């Protein structure tokens, strides 16, 4: 089906949910209650065994009522640095990847959360949404790490690079390489999504106009996190996530058109894409 089929996580017959890996999502605020929910939906629909959302009560209530499969932990914006570190340490043994930033906003409390999590979480981490805003604000205190994936769109890349938007659009390959060289692995969203780790660059041209919708990036981050939580290296997880996310959007648009698609529909289409990839993999192995 694609060169990414071999990256789909193996699921042996005796697997249990702990073997699938855990994803911790830190983000959300009263204005953006849906972002962590969509990230969790993307993670669960991509096969993770445990999804936890650490956010404020208003977000946790929305998540619990809409997606009861998710565990919620409230009190994010009111937590001190010590409280946040304590919660990270509590979940660390069961969590294999963390998604930081979906819907977290730009309040001073949000900035404190982003800085604290970046300082204390050493496992694979995906930085998305306003998490990227806060990284750009405090980059002088940041050291590049291999376990970090940034997922900017072109506007967020503009802020990270402190370069005009037109220059980012004209030189996407150079832009994503600069971000990767400065921070970690980078995924630059677009019709031709680019994934770069500072040495290699992969282009995934699977998306279309149907994915230019609110929450699409949150679903993508959740999907990538699920693959990373299952043990797939972060660069390869980003490639696989971009592929299945793009295929899901394209498949929905072929049935419904390119307008009016919801991000939740994209998340819900992920299992069928993964099933087709598994079938293709089995056919290849039996040839």
Write a concise synopsis of the structure shown:
This protein is of the alpha/beta class and 287 residues long. Helix content is 50%, strand content 12%. The protein has helices spanning 17-20, 34-45, 57-66, 81-91, 108-120, 130-137, 154-161, 165-170, 172-182, 216-229, 234-256, 263-286, and strands spanning 22-26, 50-54, 71-73, 97-100, 125-127, 148-150, 185-188, 193-196, 201-204.
| H/E series | HEHEHEHEHEHEHHHEEEHHH
Number of domains: 1
Instruction: Classify the fold: give the CATH topology.
Output: UDP-N-acetylmuramoyl-L-alanine:D-glutamate ligase
Shape: globular
Rg calc: 18 Å
**CATH top level assignment:** Alpha Beta
CATH architecture term: 3-Layer(aba) Sandwich
Q: For the terminal residues, how far apart are their CA atoms?
A: 14 Å
Helix count from the secondary structure assignment = 12
The main sheet orders its strands as 3-2-1-4-5-6-7-8-9
Class derived from helix and strand content? alpha/beta
pLDDT < 50 stretches:
none
**Major β-sheet profile:** 9 strands, mixed
Helicity level = 40-55%
Strand content: 5-15%
At the fourth level of CATH, the homologous superfamily is Ribokinase
Average residue pLDDT = 94
Question: What's the total count of β strands?
Answer: 9
């Amino acid at each position: 089906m694609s060169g990414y089929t071999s990256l789909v996580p193996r699921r042996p017959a005796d697997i249990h949910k702990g073997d699938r890996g855990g994803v911790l999502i830190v983000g959300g605020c009263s204005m953006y209650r849906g972002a962590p929910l969509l990230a969790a939906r993307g993670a669960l629909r991509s096969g993770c065994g445990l999804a936890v959302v650490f956010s404020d009560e208003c977000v946790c209530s929305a998540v619990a009522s809409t997606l009861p499969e998710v565990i919620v932990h409230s009190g994010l914006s009111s937590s001190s640095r010590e409280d946040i570190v304590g919660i990270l340490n509590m979940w660390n043994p069961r969590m294999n990847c963390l998604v930081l930033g979906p819907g977290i906003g730009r309040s001073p409390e949000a900035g404190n959360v982003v800085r604290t999590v970046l300082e204390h979480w050493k496992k694979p981490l995906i930085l998305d949404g306003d998490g990227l805003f806060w990284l750009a604000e405090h980059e002088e205190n940041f050291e590049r790490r291999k376990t970090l994936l940034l997922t900017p769109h072109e506007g967020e890349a503009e802020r990270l690079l402190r370069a005009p938007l037109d220059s980012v659009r004209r030189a996407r390959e150079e832009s994503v390489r600069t971000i990767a060289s400065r921070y970690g692995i980078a995924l630059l969203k677009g019709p031709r999504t680019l994934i770069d780790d500072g040495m290699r660059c992969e282009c995934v041209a699977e998306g279309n106009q149907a994915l230019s919708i609110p929450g699409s990036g949150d679903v993508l981050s959740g999907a990538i996190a699920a693959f990373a939580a299952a043990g797939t290296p972060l660069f390869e997880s980003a490639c696989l996530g971009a592929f299945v996310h793009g295929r899901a959007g394209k498949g929905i648009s072929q049935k419904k058109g390119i307008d009016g698609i919801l991000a939740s529909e994209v998340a819900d289409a992920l299992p069928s894409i993964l099933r087709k990839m598994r079938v293709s993999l089995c056919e290849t192995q039996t040839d």
